[in-house]
Amino acid sequence: MQSRTLLILILGSLTTIGPLSIDMYLPAFGGIADDLGTDISRISLSLSSFFVGLAVGQLIYGPLLERFGRKRPMYIGLLIYALSSVACALSTSVEALIVFRFFQALGACGGLVASRAIVRDLFDTREMARVFSLLMMVIAVSPIIAPTLGGVIAAAFGWRYVFGLLTLLALLVLTGAYVLLAGYERKNRQYSLRPSAVGRNYLSILTDPHFILYAMTGAFSSAGLYAYISGSPHLYLELFGISEQEYGIVFAVIAAGLIAATQLNSRILKLRSSERIVFLALVGQFSVALLLLADVGLGFGNLYFTTGLIFCYLFCLGFIFPNASALSLDTMRHTAGSASALMGSLQMAVGALASALVGVLQNETALPMAGMMALCGGLALLLLAVGSRRLSPAAVEAA
């Protein structure tokens, strides 16, 4: 196996395929809508279908990663992603784009699930939280680069070239993973792929109170991010009336909150437990969400103040997500692939629902987005507060 730094770089590149697929085409929503003869709210359904694909696809990859190892399913997934990206670029209707985005997400799942499973294979709980923080930093860089790059490409060449670039990036990641992960493998030929056996395995994971508490806490908290992503084109491009290039800059500034938090999280882990960090960050996230809801609901908001609140919301998420992810996988020592898949699927399912509801409830204001962000933060905090008291002392000690 290569050095730790190179390993994390590889895992980060695999993990960031999904976020790049979300962030890079956001500034082009207006151009896509005009070209396909529809409106931005309809184009946003292609974002929701991508989230649904991520939720479904990860459940498929989990058992495959256990049986065939981490690499082969990941390679197949990246190929599916590349082909689907080409199909997205060639779409002539919004319905086709929505369908191909679903398959694009199915392909992206390979890298997402495999990277988390490899982290669980190689690191203990506290180290996992630090590695997840580093991975999240890599993920957080994509909203800084991707919207700006996507906006420039869409303005210069058209939105279809955005998906062309995603195709090229997927092939580059596939090549790098093939070369640099050549010495790593973990497979279990005895793992059964029969639907009944797969179902029992997933059920056993779901009934682990430690897993379900932190997986769902992370899912609800991160769903606020998907609500923001879904609602941000309407908020910034239509309500605030900024340009696509300016939207990319704003998106980058907000994403900097995630990067700052992930860097601080690695340091704070030396002083505080992951459980404590998650709780305090959730309190902060929910408080900020309530301020944002009041801001847009009462009509006091302006571009800078609203952006500042969203920045703080994602700053808190930068502490919640890596620690909740590490805690949810802590007890999954022999089913890391399936547990990683199920955790990701739960997160994407809740995220897809939040994203879709923002679109469905759209009323030409920012209230659906802000309300969903507050609801997600509140549910995450409530779940953790109630659920942590129900964990047995043994489970708490194991954490």
TrEMBL record:
**Gene Ontology CC:** plasma membrane
Q: Any idea which UniProt keywords this protein has?
A: Cell membrane, Membrane, Transmembrane, Transmembrane helix, Transport
Stretches assigned to the Major facilitator superfamily (MFS) profile domain? 5-389
Could you tell me which PROSITE patterns the record lists for this protein? MFS
Chief site of localization: membrane
Topology versus the membrane = Multi-pass membrane protein
GO MF terms here are:
xenobiotic transmembrane transporter activity
CDD domains found in the cross-reference section: MFS_MdfA_MDR_like
Q: Where are the transmembrane segments?
A: 43-62, 74-92, 98-119, 131-155, 161-184, 211-229, 249-265, 277-298, 304-329, 341-361, 367-386
What is an example of a Pfam family matching this protein? MFS_1
Q: Which SUPFAM superfamilies match?
A: MFS general substrate transporter (SSF103473)
Q: Which GO terms describe its biological process?
A: xenobiotic detoxification by transmembrane export across the plasma membrane
The family annotation for this protein states: Belongs to the major facilitator superfamily. Bcr/CmlA family.
State the name under which the record lists this protein: Bcr/CflA family efflux MFS transporter
Species assigned in the record: Neolewinella litorea
